[in-house]
Amino acid sequence: MRKGILKGIMEALVKADALCDGGDLGCGELLILLMKRMKELQPGQVLLALTTDPGAVEDLPAWCRMTENDLVATVQAEDHTRYFIRRSSQVERNLAADAAKARAYRWMARVRGMGGVQAKAFVRNHAFLVGQPASFAASDEAPSAVEYLLAGLGGCLAVGFQIRASRRGIRVEAVEVSLKGAIDNILVFLGMAEEGHPGFSRIEGSLYVKADADEAALREIWCETLARSPVANSLRQAVELDVALSIVS
User: What's the DSSP call for residue 175?
Assistant: First the structure.
Protein backbone atom coordinates (compact mmCIF):
# COMPACT_ATOMS: atom_id res chain seq x y z
CA MET A 1 0.00 0.00 0.00
CA ARG A 2 2.77 2.43 0.98
CA LYS A 3 4.66 1.60 -2.22
CA GLY A 4 1.59 2.43 -4.33
CA ILE A 5 1.08 5.75 -2.53
CA LEU A 6 4.72 6.71 -3.09
CA LYS A 7 4.45 5.83 -6.78
CA GLY A 8 1.39 8.05 -7.16
CA ILE A 9 3.09 10.96 -5.37
CA MET A 10 6.19 10.58 -7.57
CA GLU A 11 4.20 10.68 -10.81
CA ALA A 12 2.16 13.65 -9.59
CA LEU A 13 5.32 15.63 -8.81
CA VAL A 14 6.93 14.94 -12.18
CA LYS A 15 4.96 16.19 -15.19
CA ALA A 16 6.01 14.71 -18.54
CA ASP A 17 5.99 16.91 -21.65
CA ALA A 18 6.32 14.01 -24.11
CA LEU A 19 6.03 10.22 -24.22
CA CYS A 20 8.45 7.66 -25.66
CA ASP A 21 6.99 4.14 -25.65
CA GLY A 22 9.92 1.76 -26.16
CA GLY A 23 7.80 -1.36 -25.75
CA ASP A 24 10.03 -4.45 -25.82
CA LEU A 25 12.84 -2.84 -27.84
CA GLY A 26 16.33 -3.91 -26.86
CA CYS A 27 18.85 -1.49 -25.39
CA GLY A 28 20.43 -0.34 -28.66
CA GLU A 29 17.14 0.33 -30.45
CA LEU A 30 15.65 1.94 -27.35
CA LEU A 31 18.53 4.41 -26.97
CA ILE A 32 18.33 5.40 -30.65
CA LEU A 33 14.61 6.09 -30.21
CA LEU A 34 15.30 8.05 -27.02
CA MET A 35 17.90 10.26 -28.72
CA LYS A 36 15.43 11.09 -31.47
CA ARG A 37 12.65 12.01 -29.03
CA MET A 38 14.96 14.03 -26.75
CA LYS A 39 15.98 16.22 -29.71
CA GLU A 40 12.32 17.23 -30.07
CA LEU A 41 12.22 18.65 -26.52
CA GLN A 42 13.33 22.02 -25.24
CA PRO A 43 15.87 22.23 -22.40
CA GLY A 44 14.08 21.66 -19.09
CA GLN A 45 11.25 19.61 -20.57
CA VAL A 46 10.67 16.05 -19.36
CA LEU A 47 10.35 12.88 -21.45
CA LEU A 48 8.48 9.87 -20.06
CA ALA A 49 10.10 6.70 -21.39
CA LEU A 50 8.25 3.39 -21.08
CA THR A 51 10.04 0.07 -21.55
CA THR A 52 9.76 -3.60 -20.66
CA ASP A 53 13.49 -4.22 -21.25
CA PRO A 54 14.99 -5.44 -17.93
CA GLY A 55 18.42 -4.21 -19.01
CA ALA A 56 17.19 -0.61 -19.04
CA VAL A 57 17.58 -0.40 -15.27
CA GLU A 58 21.34 -0.12 -15.86
CA ASP A 59 21.51 1.17 -19.43
CA LEU A 60 19.20 4.20 -19.09
CA PRO A 61 20.89 5.78 -16.04
CA ALA A 62 24.29 5.25 -17.73
CA TRP A 63 22.98 6.87 -20.93
CA CYS A 64 21.65 9.84 -18.94
CA ARG A 65 25.04 10.35 -17.28
CA MET A 66 26.83 10.10 -20.62
CA THR A 67 24.50 12.58 -22.37
CA GLU A 68 24.23 14.83 -19.28
CA ASN A 69 20.44 14.56 -19.20
CA ASP A 70 18.77 14.28 -15.79
CA LEU A 71 17.04 11.07 -14.73
CA VAL A 72 14.40 12.65 -12.50
CA ALA A 73 12.50 9.56 -11.39
CA THR A 74 12.05 5.85 -12.03
CA VAL A 75 8.70 4.17 -11.39
CA GLN A 76 8.21 0.40 -11.59
CA ALA A 77 4.78 -0.66 -12.87
CA GLU A 78 3.40 -4.20 -13.13
CA ASP A 79 4.57 -4.94 -16.69
CA HIS A 80 6.94 -2.07 -17.51
CA THR A 81 9.16 0.63 -16.02
CA ARG A 82 8.67 4.39 -16.37
CA TYR A 83 11.68 6.68 -16.62
CA PHE A 84 11.27 10.45 -16.33
CA ILE A 85 14.18 12.17 -18.11
CA ARG A 86 14.69 15.93 -18.15
CA ARG A 87 16.56 17.40 -21.10
CA SER A 88 19.59 19.38 -19.95
CA SER A 89 20.61 22.71 -21.47
CA GLN A 90 24.13 21.31 -21.62
CA VAL A 91 22.96 18.78 -24.20
CA GLU A 92 22.27 21.52 -26.75
CA ARG A 93 25.80 22.87 -26.38
CA ASN A 94 27.24 19.36 -26.61
CA LEU A 95 25.23 18.58 -29.75
CA ALA A 96 26.45 21.76 -31.45
CA ALA A 97 30.07 20.98 -30.56
CA ASP A 98 29.73 17.36 -31.69
CA ALA A 99 28.11 18.44 -34.97
CA ALA A 100 31.01 20.79 -35.69
CA LYS A 101 33.54 18.04 -34.96
CA ALA A 102 31.65 15.59 -37.19
CA ARG A 103 31.63 17.99 -40.14
CA ALA A 104 35.37 18.60 -39.78
CA TYR A 105 36.31 14.93 -39.31
CA ARG A 106 38.61 13.31 -41.87
CA TRP A 107 38.67 9.55 -42.37
CA MET A 108 42.14 8.10 -42.87
CA ALA A 109 43.74 4.92 -44.17
CA ARG A 110 47.38 3.87 -44.46
CA VAL A 111 48.31 1.20 -47.00
CA ARG A 112 51.69 -0.57 -47.20
CA GLY A 113 52.87 -2.60 -50.20
CA MET A 114 53.64 -6.20 -49.29
CA GLY A 115 55.42 -7.14 -52.51
CA GLY A 116 53.93 -8.90 -55.51
CA VAL A 117 50.24 -8.10 -55.91
CA GLN A 118 49.30 -7.50 -52.28
CA ALA A 119 49.10 -4.57 -49.90
CA LYS A 120 48.12 -4.25 -46.26
CA ALA A 121 45.67 -1.57 -45.16
CA PHE A 122 45.61 -0.05 -41.67
CA VAL A 123 42.40 1.70 -40.63
CA ARG A 124 41.95 2.74 -36.98
CA ASN A 125 42.34 -0.53 -35.02
CA HIS A 126 41.90 -2.76 -38.09
CA ALA A 127 44.38 -4.24 -40.56
CA PHE A 128 43.48 -6.24 -43.67
CA LEU A 129 45.08 -7.49 -46.88
CA VAL A 130 44.13 -6.06 -50.26
CA GLY A 131 44.80 -8.04 -53.41
CA GLN A 132 45.50 -6.71 -56.88
CA PRO A 133 43.16 -3.97 -58.12
CA ALA A 134 41.17 -6.40 -60.28
CA SER A 135 41.44 -10.19 -60.37
CA PHE A 136 39.81 -12.77 -62.66
CA ALA A 137 40.89 -15.81 -60.62
CA ALA A 138 38.32 -18.01 -58.88
CA SER A 139 40.17 -17.59 -55.58
CA ASP A 140 42.89 -15.35 -54.14
CA GLU A 141 44.66 -14.81 -50.83
CA ALA A 142 42.86 -11.48 -50.41
CA PRO A 143 39.90 -9.66 -52.00
CA SER A 144 40.73 -7.30 -54.86
CA ALA A 145 40.47 -3.54 -54.44
CA VAL A 146 37.32 -3.35 -56.59
CA GLU A 147 35.71 -6.07 -54.46
CA TYR A 148 36.41 -4.03 -51.32
CA LEU A 149 34.70 -1.10 -53.04
CA LEU A 150 31.60 -3.20 -53.75
CA ALA A 151 31.64 -4.66 -50.23
CA GLY A 152 31.99 -1.17 -48.73
CA LEU A 153 28.91 -0.05 -50.64
CA GLY A 154 26.95 -3.14 -49.62
CA GLY A 155 27.91 -2.78 -45.97
CA CYS A 156 26.97 0.89 -45.93
CA LEU A 157 23.54 0.15 -47.40
CA ALA A 158 22.77 -2.90 -45.21
CA VAL A 159 23.76 -1.23 -41.94
CA GLY A 160 22.19 2.08 -42.94
CA PHE A 161 18.87 0.35 -43.67
CA GLN A 162 18.90 -1.44 -40.30
CA ILE A 163 19.64 1.78 -38.41
CA ARG A 164 16.83 3.72 -40.10
CA ALA A 165 14.35 0.87 -39.63
CA SER A 166 15.27 0.68 -35.93
CA ARG A 167 14.65 4.41 -35.50
CA ARG A 168 11.08 3.83 -36.67
CA GLY A 169 10.59 0.87 -34.35
CA ILE A 170 10.58 -1.64 -37.24
CA ARG A 171 12.14 -5.03 -36.53
CA VAL A 172 14.31 -6.31 -39.38
CA GLU A 173 14.45 -10.10 -39.38
CA ALA A 174 16.96 -10.42 -42.23
CA VAL A 175 18.76 -8.11 -44.67
CA GLU A 176 21.27 -8.87 -47.41
CA VAL A 177 22.77 -6.86 -50.25
CA SER A 178 23.84 -8.45 -53.53
CA LEU A 179 25.93 -6.32 -55.92
CA LYS A 180 27.74 -6.70 -59.22
CA GLY A 181 29.66 -4.11 -61.19
CA ALA A 182 30.80 -3.66 -64.78
CA ILE A 183 34.14 -1.94 -65.41
CA ASP A 184 34.22 0.27 -68.49
CA ASN A 185 37.42 -1.26 -69.91
CA ILE A 186 39.67 -3.33 -67.63
CA LEU A 187 42.22 -3.59 -70.48
CA VAL A 188 43.20 0.03 -69.75
CA PHE A 189 44.41 -1.04 -66.28
CA LEU A 190 46.29 -3.98 -67.82
CA GLY A 191 48.05 -1.66 -70.29
CA MET A 192 46.49 -3.40 -73.27
CA ALA A 193 44.21 -0.56 -74.41
CA GLU A 194 43.79 3.21 -74.18
CA GLU A 195 40.14 3.59 -75.06
CA GLY A 196 37.67 4.10 -72.22
CA HIS A 197 38.64 4.00 -68.54
CA PRO A 198 39.42 1.29 -65.93
CA GLY A 199 36.70 2.33 -63.49
CA PHE A 200 33.20 1.04 -62.85
CA SER A 201 30.67 2.28 -65.39
CA ARG A 202 27.69 0.63 -63.69
CA ILE A 203 26.91 -1.03 -60.36
CA GLU A 204 23.63 -2.83 -59.90
CA GLY A 205 22.06 -5.16 -57.40
CA SER A 206 19.38 -5.60 -54.78
CA LEU A 207 18.81 -5.25 -51.06
CA TYR A 208 16.73 -8.17 -49.83
CA VAL A 209 14.84 -7.52 -46.63
CA LYS A 210 12.40 -9.38 -44.42
CA ALA A 211 10.83 -7.09 -41.86
CA ASP A 212 7.71 -6.51 -39.80
CA ALA A 213 6.41 -3.56 -41.86
CA ASP A 214 4.36 -2.82 -44.95
CA GLU A 215 5.92 -2.28 -48.37
CA ALA A 216 5.36 1.50 -48.36
CA ALA A 217 7.27 1.95 -45.10
CA LEU A 218 10.16 -0.25 -46.26
CA ARG A 219 10.46 1.59 -49.57
CA GLU A 220 10.49 4.92 -47.74
CA ILE A 221 13.32 3.66 -45.52
CA TRP A 222 15.18 2.38 -48.58
CA CYS A 223 14.94 5.73 -50.36
CA GLU A 224 16.26 7.49 -47.26
CA THR A 225 19.08 4.91 -46.93
CA LEU A 226 20.25 5.57 -50.51
CA ALA A 227 19.94 9.33 -50.12
CA ARG A 228 22.01 9.38 -46.90
CA SER A 229 24.63 6.73 -47.75
CA PRO A 230 28.16 8.24 -47.78
CA VAL A 231 29.49 5.47 -50.05
CA ALA A 232 26.55 5.47 -52.48
CA ASN A 233 26.69 9.24 -52.82
CA SER A 234 30.45 9.19 -53.38
CA LEU A 235 30.03 6.65 -56.20
CA ARG A 236 26.94 8.02 -57.90
CA GLN A 237 28.82 11.19 -58.85
CA ALA A 238 30.68 9.14 -61.48
CA VAL A 239 28.99 5.73 -61.73
CA GLU A 240 25.51 4.67 -62.80
CA LEU A 241 24.16 3.15 -59.58
CA ASP A 242 21.06 0.96 -59.60
CA VAL A 243 20.34 -0.99 -56.40
CA ALA A 244 16.72 -2.08 -55.99
CA LEU A 245 14.75 -3.07 -52.91
CA SER A 246 13.42 -6.66 -52.80
CA ILE A 247 11.02 -7.48 -49.96
CA VAL A 248 11.11 -11.12 -48.79
CA SER A 249 7.85 -12.52 -47.49
Answer: E
Catalytic hit among 27, 64, 156, 223 = 27
Cβ 81 vs Cβ 48: under 8 Å = no
pTM of full prediction above 0.85 = no
Q: Does the domain made of 2-95 have the CATH classification 3.20.20.70?
A: no
Q: Is 156 known to be catalytic?
A: no
Tens-digit pLDDT string for the chain (249 aa): 344 434 443 444 467 888 888 887 776 777 888 888 888 888 888 888 888 887 788 888 888 888 888 888 888 877 788 889 888 876 666 667 777 887 888 889 999 999 888 999 999 999 999 998 888 888 888 999 999 999 999 999 999 999 888 878 888 999 999 999 999 999 999 899 999 999 999 999 999 999 999 999 999 999 999 999 999 999 988 777 788 888 888
Q: Domain residues of the chain, as ranges? A: 2-95, 144-247
Q: Which CATH superfamily is domain 144-247 in?
A: K homology (KH) domain (3.30.300.20)
Do 171 and 211 touch, CB atoms closer than 8 A? yes
DSSP conformation class of 42: P
